[in-house]
Structures are given as structure tokens and as C-alpha cells.
Amino acid sequence: MIVNSNFRPAGGLRGPHIQTLWASQVRRPPRIQLRRDRLELPDGDFVDLDWTEGSSAAPIVMVLHGLEGSSDSGYARGLLHAVVKKGWRGVVMHSRGCSGEPNRLRRGYCAGTTDDPSTVALSLSRRFPGVPLVAVGYSLGGNALLNWLGESGNRNPLSAAVAVSIPFRLAIATDRLNRGLSRLYRGYLLRSLKQSYSEKFTNRADAPYPLDRLDALWDFRAFDHFITAPLNGYDSAEHYYAAASSRSHLAGISVPTLIVQARDDPFMTPEVLPNEAELSPQVTLEISASGGHVGFVSGSLWRPRYWLEERIPAFIEQRLASASYPP
Fold this sequence. Notes:
Rossmann fold, nine-stranded mixed β-sheet, 2 domains, globular
């Protein structure tokens, strides 16, 4: 089902770039106390989980961050704060290498990484039997979440899911970041990716690409071809984009899922959006005319409200109530 969102941008904060940059660069995220667990993975690697405090019987909201994100990302902190206010527990699943320490294995993470969220979710289900588990994914993490939901179908352990600002067709999103002001995001993210790559492979002999030639990789297509693809089992950037794009997995989703998307998202174009026929009956695609990329700042310039932190908990609360879970 495709529906129109009731989101309205804050006065003085209209436009895709100001929405995106205000939420990610200007906002002061709420402070929240987190504790870290490390989960050992079946292949010998690890992921770090940052938890809020709360009752072990409370519903769990698992957060999947975007490209080069972490539990320090503003959207993650904001949602965790909203989750705690509801009496639930939040946990950020860091992708491999994103928790402040390089991961052990050569492989990394990407938009098609579905085994790690699956492993974490199954571990949490076994650790807290009978406790409802919800996942919220942003951008690249949301794309991976949708892929996992589609691949697992009715075997998925989640009670509900939310995905925000999704690059449904990765090749189109990659090309969009080469145009106009969106090149600012490309530059920022590539610098972070290259730094992470350098830190990981400086003292290793298995780097897929020479560290002293990183400056030659000036856009995502080049970086993904020479680094992301070989590190994650793909033959090329084009193979990666075709295999890891979530749009083709939406019909297989069996978990009640909300997707929140803005038509003016500067990381993509409206043509990436799926049509009604591509959506499972369990999927609601909520589209707003504005909001930018993981922006969605409402209220006013002087009193901004972060609408996602209202909309996402409201959806989760509705789903938990309909499934007869305790609040």
C-alpha cells in the first residue's frame, strides 16, 4: 500500500538539503546512557551492540544505521531516546567495523548484508524468548533490512519493521550523488569510507586495492567496484548494485513494515520508488513531498521537532497492540 505522509517541514527549514543537513549536522542529539555487548559471529568476526537500559521483559527495538553510521549518529540517538520514553529497550547493531574498531575479517558490510542482522535478531530472540523484537533501518541499513525481510519471508523473527530513506535502486542512487549539491554528501561519505579502509588494511596484506591509490576513487561507482564489491563477494559494482538493491525483495516481506520516504531525497530520484504492485500486502510505503534524506524536521526553526521520532514509535506501538503484546 502506498499512502501520503502527514509530514510538514518546519518553517525556515524547507528544502531537501537543509532538511538533511539540519538533522545530521546542526541538531544536538539527546544524551543517552548506553552499554556495549559484543556478539561473536559464526565466521569468527564480531559485531558490537549498544544497549539502552530497561527491563529485560520490555520490547526491543533494534537499530540498523546507515553508511558509516553508529550509535553516535543523530538519528540513532534520537530514536533511542524516544524508545526509552516508551518504556522499551533500544539496541544499535553496528555493522562490521563501524563501532570504533576494525573488524577481524577481510569482508566488510554493504547494502546487501543480511546475514549479520539475521544472526543478531536470532540471538536476541533466543536470549529474550517471548519478547517482541522490532527493527528500524536507516538508508543503507534500511536497504539491508528490507532485503533480509524479503529473503526470509515468514521465517523472520521480527514483530514489525521500519525502513527510512531507502536507496531502492543502488545504481540510480549512486549516479544521483554525482550531481549538483549532492556531491557534498558523496565527498563526506567517501572520505569516511577511505579513512575506515586505511585504518583496517594498513597492517594487513589482503587489501583488495592499494592504499596509496585511494585518491583515484573519486565516486561511489569506482569505490564500490574496487573495494565494496570484492570485500563482500560481488564481481563488480554493477553486480553489487543489481544483487543488493532492495526493490526486488519487497514482494516477499511477511512482517508488517513501514517505509518512510521523501520524494525530494537528495540521495536518489523519484524513479527509485517502487509501485504498488511491487509491495507485499504487509508493506506500507509512506511518501512525503519533502523531508530530505533522514531529515523530516517539523515544528519551527526555533522549536524543531524530529518527526521520525514520533512516527516510528507510533507505528511500533500500533503493531505491538494489534499483536496483543504488552506495552
